[in-house]
Amino acid sequence: MLPWKQIVLLSITGCLAACTEDVIFQGPRWRTEPSDLILPISSPDQQATITCEAEGSPPPQYRWSLNGTLIDLGNDYRRHMSGGSLIISNLDKDQDTGVYQCTAFNTWGSILSRRASLQFAYLDNFKTQTVRSAVNVREGQGVVLLCGPPAHSGELAFAWIFNEYPYFVQQDSRRFISQETGSLYIAKVEPSDVGNYTCVVNNTVTREKVLSSPTPLVLRSDGVMGEYEPKIEVHFPDSVPAAKESVVKLECFALGNPVPEISWRRTSGVPFPSKVKMKNANAVLEIPNFQQEDAGAYECMAENRRGKNAVRGRISFHAKPHWLQTMTDTALSIEENLFWECKANGKPKPSYSWLKNGEPVAEGRVQIENGALSIAALNLSDSGMYQCVAENKHGIIYSSAQLMVLASPPSFSKSPLRALVKARSGSEVTLECKPQASPPAISLWKKGNEILCSASLRITLLPNGTLKIANVTRRDAASYTCIAKNQFGTASTTGKLIITEPTRITMRPTNMEIIVGESIVLPCQIACDPALDVSFSWAFNGQLIDFQRDSDHFERVGGSISGDLMIRNIQLNHGGKYVCVIDTDVESLSTSAILVVKGPPGPPDKVSVEEITDSTAQLSWTPGRDNGSPITGYIIQARTPFTVGWQAVDTVPEVVNGNMLTATVVGLNAWVEYEFRVVARNIVGLGEPSPASAKTRTEDAIPDTAPTDVGGGGGTKSELVITWEPVPEELQNGEGFGYIIAFRPVGTVTWTRAVISNIGVARYVFRNDTIPPFSPFDVKVGAYNNRGEGPFSSIATVYSAEEGTMQTSQSVSAAQIEVIWEALPAIPERVLGYEVVYWEDDTKPDTVGKVRISGNYTLVNITGLKANTVYYLSVAAFNTAGPGPQSAPINTTTKKPPPDRAPLNIQWTMIGSTLTLHWDPVVAMETESKVTGYLVGPSLLQSSDLSSESKMMVFTSAYLSAFLSANDNYLIQIKAMSEGGEGVGSEPIHIHKLSEFTVLFPSSYQHLIWLHCIPFQPCVIDLFRVREKRPF
């Protein structure tokens, strides 16, 4: 090759990658190809858009052809492009109808789109005619009314109007409208058919509608047509071509008297598939999604009692071509060979042709045979866009691919040798020489300056340029260079090989057993060549451990030659195989150990109650996992609606060992619903409990528990009140539970019995006018249920009710009432004291206040009451049997509350031992008690309690003059007095012993002036802030 040709060749291919794996194909690729269009012609301002869009780099350009002729868009004012799409304005049926094809091209080549047709739909009017000729027919005769549609383009749909709009002819077994011819067929005319018929033609594309002139149908008067055999007037052709996946409709209708019945069949006898539909009283056979197996001969049969007639036709299958195999973008080096093959299916079988950049491929160096294309010894001129074309009479399809022919000198820019290659002594080293070159380069190897060959048994040079050295030793350590060469140039790459000693594992992990919750370290330590980089990793049961994600349990510890694994707080799921993997630059080693984790047993399962009595339950269960340690025993727990959580229960045997899977629970309560669960244990500890068994109720039994705390007393005159603590529901042992109350006067023999069936009652009152007050009775209470009577309680002594008391009361203050009553005329040992009950309203609610006073007292003060409130009170005596009958209630109203304001503007003076006080009177509000006077309380300043060491002085006016010791410090406080009690106290006033003459301004002032006057000396004035209490 001439040098200038090499320069041109290299400049053209300089932007191409020399290795086919890195080639980026940038020729045109279709995104959207044109589609067939059919448009109404009625709108002159309408425009048509035929889409076409491709991608590539640089972005493709476009051109269009119509019926094979290139469209000159530069001189065509009606046509222009938007992107790659062709837009046609001011549509013209004659100029724009045809087949369009789009071409996309860039610097890499050109491709053709599929072909698309543009057609115009229209519908002319019927020829002007007032009324069509009448059709005369006899009753019973068949008739055909012709439509004769006008000139049109586009699919039509037909209907007929009877007499006037909107009365359309309804199709049935006697009437049929053919969508092929538009004609109306009446198999047998009846008198109701007489009238005018108008054919309605609809264009499904333009949605235009035209009506024919009316056709009169007249009934002849020369008699009725007799019966005759069917005559098929509508039938399908002898040969019907049908496209793949299309909808095929066959029409068949016959005239006849009686009206014929239509039926269909395949002459082969094969039944119709479920997709086939019969419409319009079987006059139309419809086959959706037509396929090859639907092709064949079909027969339509028309039959009445006068005979039958049939027509036959064959539906043939045809299909447009569709691809089975296409070629792909290909990059080959110069002088290599190309072979492409495409395959398509269709009916009839498609033929093939090839295009390069939109033009037919010229044969010569290019060989074409059916769908195969081959080119030997490629050169740069063979680069371009190629298309395989498959065509039959029903359609044409295109498949595109780009061919890039590459030419470049060798280059190691993308695959150089590693600068440093490490290998373990005794291993095999592979050095790859993979230059990018087109055509492929020839390579050779050097060790230092020595050219290598395969003369040595340990050294192998492979055809692809790879160098292999077996069983390497330290003598093989050197620099290695691969030199690559083709007709366009030479390149080389160098790497250094060093040989290291084998790595040894010096400490390995060992198989071990461990208890849940403990921590261990699995050792993994090595001795290695210092030139090696080492990394450690651990796998658990085949999965690499993620130390960041699993840091709660796993941590790698140790230095550069140690990869020990620490496992903290070991759980049962940590048991398994641990593998330490040591990776170096030249090898990978591993060592493993099995870790068995022992823990408490897993939960037993399938706990069931095999047999149950009133106090026992026979249980069985299946064992859970022993978790590395044999199960040594089981604990059985039970739960009822009356227990708090699960409780351990007694069993037989008392100790359930680990080999047992059954046990009997004892000590259960009768007629109680139980759940049971089982807990296993081993030397590690107790495991998780099993799921609960199904709820099971024990059998019923006679009560075995008597009521407790039997007592009573109190009530009203002539009553014996008996109380007891109810038997808990879990101890009632069955349904129909109740109480038996037995009582008798002390010293008698005969018991009086009473039965209470209400289990919620724990009190019984026996009334009898003959019962003397406070008379002792022997009382006992028993229990019963449907199974019988249970035991009675021990005998208790209960006294009958006493007689009532008389009482009076008065309000003492806003929060206090004094109650006085008359003592009972009874012996002292019969009365322990009195109980006063009080409440706020006369309905006597459940919540009341009580005051109990022991001894023979007849007065009590009730405190802590609400002010200005009506209280009701009642008094009863009590003894060991409880309170007796209460007295009749009386009511008393507490006083209004005292004023809630302290005296204000207090002024005072003290000369010697004489203290003088003045203040503003306190005026009570309507809701407060009237002020009756004032309390003035002086106390020594050393006491923190104003009430301590104080002497309260009562005054009716807002003025006070008193004598105090001049040698003490005092606190003075003033309160208003009323019937409701004491009011709010004023702020304390400080009286100091240093004061010979002191003036306190009214409290509204903010400063305090102290005058310290010593006889025969000047006075000292101190000014204080009243609130801050510090020198100003």
TrEMBL record:
The Fibronectin type-III domain is annotated at 603-701, 706-800, 802-897, 902-997
* Bilayer topology term: Lipid-anchor; GPI-anchor
GO cellular component annotations of the record = axon; plasma membrane; side of membrane
Signal peptide positions on this chain: 1-17
The record's section on PROSITE patterns has: FN3 (PS50853), IG_LIKE (PS50835)
Q: Identify the keywords attached in UniProt to this record, alphabetized.
A: Cell adhesion, Cell membrane, Disulfide bond, Glycoprotein, GPI-anchor, Immunoglobulin domain, Lipoprotein, Membrane, Repeat, Signal
Q: Which residues form the Ig-like domain?
A: 34-119, 124-212, 230-316, 321-404, 410-500, 502-590
What Gene3D superfamilies does its record include?
Answer: Immunoglobulins (2.60.40.10)
- UniProt-annotated stretches for the region Disordered: 690-715
Gene Ontology molecular function, alphabetical? cell-cell adhesion mediator activity
Instruction: Please list the GO biological process terms of this entry.
Output: axon guidance; brain development
Q: What does the UniProt entry say about where the protein is found?
A: Cell membrane
Question: Which proteins does it associate with, and in what oligomeric form?
Answer: Interacts with PTPRG.
Family listed: Belongs to the immunoglobulin superfamily. Contactin family.
| Record protein name field | Contactin 3b
